[in-house]
Amino acid sequence: MSKRLQVLLDEQEWREVKRVARAQRLTVAEWVRQTLRAARRQAPSRDVEQKLAAIRRAFEESGPTADIETMLAEIERGYTAESQ
């Protein structure tokens, strides 16, 4: 089911939106729909607290660790072993 959205723009905003839509060979309505879709895709999918909680949980996990020189040496040995 479609819903109508009414947005009030001043004259200058309206002219600019109309100009941009016309340049893309779109109606103003289609340009607005596409712009709103793009804005929704770019919006954060979770709130900040959920993201911070996920990061905190990740830091609680333990994994294999070594000093940086050891890790780099192991990586380099892996590269040279593959090329032989």
Secondary structure blueprint with pairings:
Layout (H helix, E strand, L loop, with lengths): L10 H13 L4 H15 L5 H13 L7 H16 L1
Explained architecture:
This protein is mainly α and 84 residues long. It is built from 4 helices and no strands. It has helices spanning 11-23, 28-42, 48-60, 68-83. The radius of gyration is 26 Å and the shape is elongated. The N and C termini lie far apart (62 Å). The model has no long low-confidence stretch (mean pLDDT 89).
Features:
mainly alpha, 84 residues
Task: Give the DSSP E fraction (strand runs of 2 or more residues).
Answer: under 5%
What is the β-strand count?
A: 0
The major β-sheet equals: none
What's the helical proportion of residues?
A: 55-70%
In a few lines, what is going on in this structure?
By secondary structure, the protein is mostly helical. It contains 4 helices and no strands.
